[in-house]
Amino acid sequence: MYKKIVVLNDKDNVGVLLESAKAGDYCIYKDNRINLFEDIEFGHKIALNDILVDESVYKYGEEIGFTLEDVKKGQWIHNHNMGCRRGK
Amino acid sequence: MKFKGYERPDGQVGVRNYIGIIPSVFCANRVAQLIAEQVDNAVYLRHPVGCSQVGADLEITARTLISMGNHPNLAAVLVVGLGCERFTPDEFVKGVKKSKKPVEKVVIQEEGDSLKAIEKGVKIAMKWAEEFSTQERELFDISELTVATKCGGTDANSGIAANPAVGAMSNKIVDLGGKILFSEVTELLGAEHILANRAVNEEVAHQICSTIENMEKKLRIAGRAEQYKHRGALISTGNFDGGVSSVVEKALGGIYKSGSRTIQGVLGYAERAEGCRGVFMMDSPGHDGEVVTGMVGGGAQIVVFTTGRGTPTGFPFVPVVKVTGNSFTYEKMKENIDVNAGAIISEEATIEEKGKAIFDFVLEVASGKKTKSEILKHDELFCITRL
Predict the structure, then answer these.
(1) What number of C-beta contacts closer than 8 Å exist between A and B?
(2) Closest among B24, B74, B72, B21 to B48, alpha carbons compared
(3) DSSP assignment, residue B65?
(4) Among B155, B216, B252, whose Cβ lies nearest the Cβ of A87?
(5) Sign (positive/negative) of CA torsion B361, B175, B189, B163?
């Protein structure tokens, strides 16, 4: 099933799900289909493309953290696979 | 554009007309409470401080309590002391006299016991309640308004809908000559370059960055010890559940609340920017109560509070307007949330449209409309920060 996402800035490599999604659902960004292969909650982020380990994650056009492992296009990005160096 | 408020003797304008019963020390909490409970339109401020403190920590307590007394939403103030505390009732009364409003004190050890102090306090507060019950609201310009912005229980919708909509409101208030406060320095990490770019000059840009840097140092020290590693999260469980993954992501979504206008300066905790207009950042940790108390001390007559997960809290004498960007939270917590900006997410409304709706609501509240947290008498947000 199609699920809506919002991408807040052209520089971003993540999109925010505007509705909860199930494995097998998909999103569209710039005419590009992004398949989801896990259940992801409304408001959470998905990768718009493959992101290698230790690469920056961008939302709002700014770096919000870095990947702790390789992340595949469509994968859920959250604190299990994204770190942040600030305040630590 | 105007609102209807209460004029104070020093020229400040209140949006509420309460009698404040304020303990100078926590030992006087119960007496202050019993006085307030017996008098119409009286509120009391429960707190755990006022003694056994030194230096900057005691100074912040004193400054904050005095700033509460001077706040324009209070028509008159009764200081309730014990008699042996470090922050003396006399210093408190002297500080509140600056506002030229009626202020008196009741000291438990001088009256004899708590019952006698309650009796005396009720008589004083009764007299004021009678006197101020006939004060009428008058028309004032928006430039008399200071609005504090705050988010609590943030989720991903806060940064996309609620905070940008509040930011549109902030821009309107500033453009009409009013003042906007923002803070939550523990949650500004990673957004300093954006804020510094909005600073009125180099000095303010530097202050913004150094305030955030100092807070980050404190967080580092607090979270460093190995045995407290499991207490090291900089954002809450609810933030994570709501899709926010890092303190920087929270910061970037959070700063929208203050709008996009020039930042005029950085204020100390509960400090006033007297006679100034525009946007000000205040140095306070992000704890909902501590930061709201600091900004009320900074003169905010109204607080606009965004929430994604949903929170019911309020302040004893300042209306708190709750805004959510999450329609599920709004449906679930309708009795706690005033404005739903969720239509931005469903693309049925623009950020500007919701900003206008929040602005209109704030003006109604300034003129007397009660918020949900006021109607339900929520008063949890009075918390003085400690060093």
Answers:
(1) 81
(2) B24
(3) H
(4) B216
(5) positive
Cα B24 from Cα B326, distance rounded (Å): 40
Question: What DSSP string runs through B250-287?
Answer: HHHHHGGGG-SSPEEEEEPTT---TT--EEEEE---S-
ipTM: 0.97
The strands making up B138-141's β-sheet, listed across from edge to edge, are: B13-14, B2-7, B138-141
Q: Which residues of A touch B329 (CB under 8 A)?
A: none
Contact state of A87 with B243 under an 8 Å Cβ cutoff: no
Summarize chain B as % helix, strand, coil (round to 5): 45, 15, 35
Residue B77's closest CA among B134, B136, B14? B14
Q: How close is the nearest chain A Cα to the Cα of B328, in Å? A: 10
Which three-class secondary structure state does DSSP give residue B108?
helix
pLDDT digits (tens, 9 = 90+) for B137-187: 999 999 999 999 999 999 999 999 999 999 999 999 999 999 999 999 999
pLDDT of amino acid B134: 97
Nearest CB to A62; choose among B186, B232, B252: B252
From CA B322, how far away is CA B101, in angstroms rounded? 30
The pLDDT-based confidence of B343 (bands split at 50, 70, 90) is: very high
A64 at interface of B, judged by CB pairs closer than 8 A: yes
Q: Amino acid identity, residue A50?
A: D
**What CA–CA distance (Å, rounded) separates B150 from B43?**
23
Task: Please list every residue in chain B whose beta carbon sits closer than 8 Å to the beta carbon of residue A16.
Answer: 156, 160, 243
Instruction: State the alpha helices, DSSP H only, in B225-370.
Output: 237-241, 247-254, 288-297, 327-332, 351-366
Contact B162/B256 with Cβ under 8 angstroms?
A: no
Q: What domains are defined for chain A? A: 5-83 (2.30.130.110)
Please compute, for residue B80, the number of CA atoms within 13 A of its CA located in the half-sphere on the CB side.
34
> Is-contact B48 B64, C-beta < 8 A?
no
- Give the start-to-end residue ranges of the domains of chain B: 18-132, 142-375
With beta carbons less than 8 A apart as the criterion, state whether A46 and A75 touch: yes
Structure tokens at B55: 């230096």
CATH 3.40.50.300 matches B18-132 = yes
- Residue B333 has a CB neighbour count (10 Å cut-off) of 19
> Can you read off the two tokens belonging to residue A72?
């595949």
Distance CA A23, CA A44 (A): 14
Which residue spans within chain A are E strands per DSSP? 5-6, 14-17, 26-29, 32-35, 45-47, 56-59, 62-67, 76-77, 82-83
